[in-house]
Amino acid sequence: MPVQYTGIVEEHRAVRERAGLFDLSHMGELFVEGPQAGEALARALVTDPPQLPLGRAHYSMICQPDGGIIDDLIVYHVAAERFLVVANASNAQVVSDALAERIEGFRAILDDRALATALVAVQGPRAAPILGPLTDADLTALRYYAILEGQVAGVPALIARTGYTGEDGFELFVEWGRAEALWDALSDAGRAAGVSPIGLGARDTLRLEAGMPLYGNELDRQTNPYEAGLGRVVKLDKDGDFVGRTALERVARDGPGRRLVGLIVRGRGIARHGHPIHVGDRQTGVVTSGTYSPTVGAPIAMAYVAPGDGEPGTIVEVEIRGRRVAAEVVALPFYRRTR
User: Fold this and answer.
1) Ordered DSSP codes for 54-110
2) Residues lower than pLDDT 50 in the chain
3) Domain range list for the chain
4) Which CATH architecture has domain 8-203?
5) What whole-number distance in Å separates Cα of residue 230 and Cα of residue 301?
6) What pLDDT is stored for residue 245 in this prediction?
7) What is the pLDDT of residue 268?
8) What span, in angstroms and rounded, lies between the C-alpha atoms of 260 and 135?
9) In this structure, what DSSP letter does residue 53 have?
10) Is 200:26 a contact under the CB 8 Å cutoff?
11) Top-level CATH class of 258-339?
12) Is this prediction's pTM over 0.70?
């Protein structure tokens, strides 16, 4: 994906108002299958995939023994003994290797299909009307975080109602060689609805408005799920052990040492990744992601701060180019679509 096709703001607004088309073929698609596929994933991840109903999905993470996040994932239950794990592009091989190691001893195998699978997404309020006429799948019956098999413009696909924009939309997993035909069909079908191709720049501003973390910014190996405000993902009540359980039980008991928050910059300037955050003479944290929000109409950011400085309404100062600028702590997300 390029950073932009026609312009970041223009592409951002296209997704919020109409629909956008994303080429996400850089993501990693890892299938785990076999009689104990669910149990194997429960040992490898912080969530409990055996509890996923057939055709449903959930957000998950794979952690180190010390609780640090190796990657955040989406897990889909695609068949009776088959799960699809989607990893971030930069971590796809690392996750593949870790899963292969962690499922040893279970009656399950890993089928790494990252280089054989393409992923195309259509996102936005007009996504369903654009995709509907092209597919034999009943999109009205496809719930959020659900997946089914179908045909899209004659191309066999796994159709998921998931995304990374804060809008309604679909992610389509197809054989690598069929992706170009699928992209062209969606482009043609969406022309009258104002569909636009979307680059990495707008993808980032959209996910930031929606309060969705980005690996390498909000999430990394030095961060645990509770610090990121994602403790709900960790299933400490599931049966059996999993990698990171002891460390994460400790954080759940004692509380995290820092807190991920949203910021709206009230002065002049845009907070960027790495900018220090101060309360008085004390540095309380650091910005992880920041941009100008076309929807909010102001500079926004996500940041880690000390737990006591994370309540909405707290005023902090972001150091931008050597100058301190006032910012207000706000609840995430910055944007939530009307359903």
Assistant:
1) TTBEEEEEEE-TTS-EEEEEEEEEEETTEEEEEE-GGGHHHHHHHHHHHTTTSS-EE
2) none
3) 8-203, 258-339
4) 2-Layer Sandwich (3.30)
5) 18
6) 98
7) 95
8) 40
9) P
10) no
11) mainly beta
12) yes
